[in-house]
Amino acid sequence: MSGGQAVGEERAARVDWAALWRSGDLGRFCFISLGILLHATNETMIATIMPAMVGELSGVQLVGWSLAIYELGSIVAGAAAGRLVSFVALRTNMAVAALLYAVGAGVCATAPSMGWFLSGRLLEGLGGGALVALAFVSVERLFDRSIWPQLFAVMSAVWGVAAFGGPLLGALVSEALSWRWAFGIFAAAGFTMAAVTLLVLRGPRATRPSGVPGALPPFPFFILAVLAASILLIAAAGVDIALLRSTLLLFAGLAGLAVFFVLDARRPEARLFPSRLFDWSTPVGSGMTMVAAFSVATCAFALYGPLLLTSLHGIPILTTGYLIAAESIAWSVLSILVANAPPRWERAIIVGGAVMIAAGSAGFAIAVPAGSIPLILVCAILQGGGFGIAWPFVTRIVVASAPEREQTIASSAVPTMQRIGYAAGSAAIGIVANAAGFSDGLSPGSARAVATVLFLAPIPLALLGVAAAVRASRAAPRKSA
User: Fold this and answer.
1) Residue 55 to residue 46: CA distance in whole angstroms
2) Which of these, 234, 239, 373, 399, could form a disulfide with 64 (CB 3.0-4.6 Å)?
3) Has residue 53 been placed in a domain?
4) Which of 259, 374, 277, 377 is nearest to 327 (CA)?
């Protein structure tokens, strides 16, 4: 590559944010990203409002479903969103998703019992999952391909801010007002977003369906029902973990997912996921394998890190919360720092990020049993930062490498696959924890037995993620000698 080409490439990689603002595109993008903020903040807020909520609602035995049912709605709506824009305009889809989210939050805010609360959480999940997927679809449909990595990086940063701010918001509102007001705030935000969507999203690519009227295949309701049933089985495996029952439910859910992907592949005209989904001979297949493998492999610390550190080493829960937050902060900060990297650096960034994720994930197997806060912090930064630098570029590769007719569904498939991985990983790591000793109850002895096994078990998947990243990165421009 000549020096002139390299300079031109670097200029092309930079985003003129001032020009984007003047054109209105930056404001439009910020508004689209609000859907991610609403979804992720609501998702993480539940942990800090749970004590107050449980004290008021009956049905405490159903508390575990408050997150599981939200994830179920998110995954199903995320899978459907990319296909729905073929039938209904992007703007209409986003307005309806925001309305669903708002109604769900309103039901949660006024729920007289846990049953009503869970129905609201399902509606919230459907609306929020659709908003996230539609944000990715909007980038693909409304913005120039050359700035996708930068926009995806900003979306990653928004997610990190939400993950950090959600528990804080829940705690503050719950203490100052009531846990119900926390959901009331989200209901008001959802209704506002639905109304403003009609004003902000304009132009033919936002206001017209992407499909050709009269030439569209039927919407794949049955296949989507298979996906919903599979996620429900996986969620059930992870809610109240008992070794035999949870293992059977997890394998049944994974088998259902396999059936879903096979059925989806047989309907190329009405797909919910891009073709050749896990085929490593294509950038789409290797990129999606990387997304799935790392999503499953990195659940352990967020789920069990605070419990193990408190039980084994007496580390205050506030300190463990900061360690969890460090992962989100590293994700956000490093996403922004590498967003303007020249295209010829993309391969090194993707592989480097994958190695960081794997190193951080494996490092917890040493750091958590040792109780070393500095070492745990390094592992959290490696894991979160690796996601931060690799994800925007892998997402661009997956979407840009998909056949043109599948780029819209490919853009929504990345966050949806990530959530499927988290759901499966959470259930699997719970089964591993019980098999390693937690089934006998929480004690220093059982925590010590679990601490190492829990972080060693996902290492093969993390290595698979690295191998998939190397394969996917071959679609990125190489730095010439």
Assistant:
1) 14
2) 239
3) yes
4) 377
The conformation of residue 479, written as its DSSP 8-state character, comes to P
Task: Round to whole Å and give the CA distance between 83 and 479.
Answer: 36
How confident is the model over 55-106, as pLDDT tens digits? 677 665 566 677 778 888 888 888 888 888 888 888 899 999 999 999 999 9
- The predicted-structure confidence for 424-466, as pLDDT tens digits, reads as follows 888 888 888 887 776 666 666 667 777 888 889 899 999 999 9
Which residue among 189, 210, 231 closes a domain?
A: 210
* Same domain membership, residue 303 and residue 193: no
Written as one string, the DSSP assignment of 205-232 is HHHS-SSPTT-PPPP-HHHHHHHHHHHH
Tell me if 353 is assigned to some domain.
Answer: yes
Instruction: Check whether residue 61 and residue 204 sit in a common domain.
Output: yes
Same domain, 196 and 303: no
Which residues, 6+ apart, have CB-to-CB distance to 80 below 8 Å? Answer: 130, 224, 272
Write out the residue range of the structural domain in which residue 366 sits.
280-481
Report pLDDT digits (tens) over 344-401.
788 889 999 999 999 999 999 998 888 888 999 999 999 999 998 988 888 888 888 8
DSSP classification of residue 298:
T
**DSSP code of 87?**
T
Phi, psi of 29 (to 5 degrees): -65, -40
Q: Is the pTM of this model over 0.70?
A: yes
Of 210, 229, 250, the position where a domain reaches its end is 210
Query: How far is it, in rounded angstroms, from Cα 230 to Cα 56?
Result: 32
Q: 218: how many CB neighbours lie within 10 A of its CB? A: 9
| Number of domains comprising the chain | 2
Q: Which of 281-285, 288-292, 321-325 shows the lowest per-residue confidence on average (mean pLDDT)?
A: 321-325
Domain of 320: which CATH number?
Answer: 1.20.1250.20
Does 22 share its domain with 105? yes
Count Cα atoms within 13 angstroms, Cβ side, for 376. Answer: 25
Q: Cα(64)–Cα(50) distance, rounded to whole angstroms?
A: 10
* Per-residue tokens: 303: 């789920």
The upper half-sphere exposure of residue 247, i.e. CA atoms within 13 Å in the direction of its Cβ, equals 7
Dump the DSSP string for 140-183. HHHS-GGGHHHHHHHHHHHHHHHHHHHHHHHHHHHHHT-HHHHH
